[in-house]
Amino acid sequence: MNNKEEEQQKPSIYSLQLHELKEWLTANGEKAFRAEQIFDWLYKKRADSFEEMSNLSKGMRQKLDENFKLTTLTTAIQQTSADGTIKFLFELHDGYSIETVLMRHEYGNSVCVTTQVGCRIGCTFCASTLGGLKRHLEAGEIVAQVVKVQKALDETDERVSSVVIMGIGEPFDNYDNMLSFLKIINHDEGLNIGARHITVSTSGIIPKIYQFADENMQINFAISLHAPNTELRSRLMPINKAYKLDDLMKAVRYYIDKTGRRISFEYGLFGKVNDQIEHAEELANLLKGLKCHVNLIPVNYVPERDYVRTPKDQIFAFEKALKNRGINVTIRREQGHDIDAACGQLRAKARKEELKS
């Protein structure tokens, strides 16, 4: 094994939660309090190497370097929209690529992160699933996306104020790494992003929804729904064949009862597929009585897919039909429409060889 391969085999220092780093330090003859110093270098000073950590002994810096890699992402492509949205295509150590998006809002800067290289869920409207799943990202590779964007914002004295886990991949298919990521970025010694400024979305892996409810975190939670009945949802999202809509709604009710928190439903509008008034009425009946919010998403056109955009007047009519039936609903503001905005679209265009099965 050459030096480069050895480096790739090391775990990422960004994958360790604070208590895990303390345990490692103690087991390796170091003082546990050094973990706070290392976290300070990683997340406050945003060091690019262990060598920069000048208040650690040379021997300790060497020990860290021998046992961990300080995950770096190479920016392969960076697209900037007229509205300030920035889409990054990052290259990983093994040559695979992932997407991360910085979205600018009136209330701050939000980063949308990726949890997998590709996706196995197979949603028929999504570019992320083209070519299937290549591998899971380790927690440190997800953390590194936020650190990388924060370093870019450092140049203008801005900060990442919120994070959404809605990029390439199904977060609950990579549950343990996703959960570590959440705890690292939320920790006040880490990136210190408040739990209520973090949103995780799933396509509906039901056992993990129950597990996530039992974690009792204050993280915002969203379900990619996209259809008001099980037949249509199975057409759009094959996962519905394994995890039926009725069972998904039972899991949703468990989550709400367990946490007391509102849940969001992501509903992409596809022209003449799921965007008619009768679909809105059916959706309202499905969600009646739930502590929830519906986020209507005018879909971005993906060349590899056949779906078309819903006309604006139909979007507003759909929204009105839900509101008239007592459903809390908003239309997601479009961002990055002049760049490869759809999830997985930039990777699909730039890295066609990655998408071969």
UniProtKB/TrEMBL annotation:
CDD domains for the chain: Radical_SAM
MF term (GO), any: rRNA binding
PROSITE patterns, per the entry: RADICAL_SAM
Pfam families noted in UniProt: Radical_SAM (PF04055), RlmN_N (PF21016)
Subcellular location: Cytoplasm
Active site: 99 (proton acceptor), 343 (s-methylcysteine intermediate)
Ligand binding (S-adenosyl-L-methionine): 169-170, 201, 224-226, 300
One GO CC term, this protein: cytoplasm
Family: Belongs to the radical SAM superfamily. RlmN family.
Biological role: Specifically methylates position 2 of adenine 2503 in 23S rRNA and position 2 of adenine 37 in tRNAs.
Record-given protein name: Probable dual-specificity RNA methyltransferase RlmN
Species the sequence originates in: Neobacillus piezotolerans
Name of encoding gene: rlmN
